[in-house]
Specification:
By secondary structure, the protein is mainly α. 53% of the residues lie in helices and 0% in strands. The chain contains 3 helices and no strands. The protein is flat, with a radius of gyration of 31 Å.
Length: 97
Amino acid sequence: MSNKAKPGIYVAWKTVTYRSVVLMLIGVAVIFGGVMHLAFPQFTDSGLKAVGSFTSKMLEKVAGLAPPIQRTSAAVSQQAHFTALDGTHPRSQGEWQ
């Protein structure tokens, strides 16, 4: 008997990347949000406003935990310091005339 004639279980594998899973989830969420907005526009608008308000409050709390910025002299913070410049100038090699 050949291998093709033997009964058995055949398992086919499909490789799925994390990127494709994330993109699919984002697509489903966008479609769901669009359908919800068409079906319940006032509810979704008030929900988005509530989420925006919550997010801004949380960001303000996180920003409040940061240490205060210490002011330094504007001249010192705006200066550039070159420690090493390597290479040759094209004119020294006769490329430009």
